[in-house]
Fold:
Amino acid sequence: MLYLHLKLRQILLDLRRYTDDNAAESALKMSGYTPTELDDIQAKWDLRFPPDLVVLYRERRRVVADEKYGSLDWTDTPDEKIRDALGWPLEGFLFDIRQGLWWPEWGDMPAGLDLRAEKLRAIFAEAPKLIPVCGHRYIPDTPHESGNPIFSVWQMDVIHYGANLDHYAGRENRVTLNADSEWPPLKPIPFWSRAVAFNNERFADGGGFAFLNRDGVLPGGT
Structure:
């Protein structure tokens, strides 16, 4: 009887310890990053978080609460996934220029795919970096100030997905439920605002992907 009593007591102690450890881990994940963690994250990934993103990350570790939508935790998400998210915008643009899409201000489109890629990489090197916040939603690091818009980037299909970080987070976290409400003013961002305009132009009147192809047709089409 004494043995069973001691065994039961040990089980309860182990259960309490397990519960306390998991509660502490959950509390850590729900809390924001420390200033040191944010400094380390930005140094590791060569990023500079805008001030409003820093404020949000001091409160919580994910911009969007539900991680199933691809919201990143910079200390918990695998490095490979973060690396893929950072490289996604360039890879998507590289795919589309191979299909013949080309901005008119870039000049004549090189015939060779390698030359197209080389020119695009040089253009991207001068564009504001995009910081992934959730899935293929990004916030630009430039200008280094609060209020930068959120962009959805899927190849050259680039649209605004939030007028600013608070506006975007409210919509994604289902805080702002009225999708038809008027958006706050949109801040223009070098390159990325032009990407939105290009996207709107090429899809105007059903033009789609054929718009501004140098041959005027889809690759392989007629």
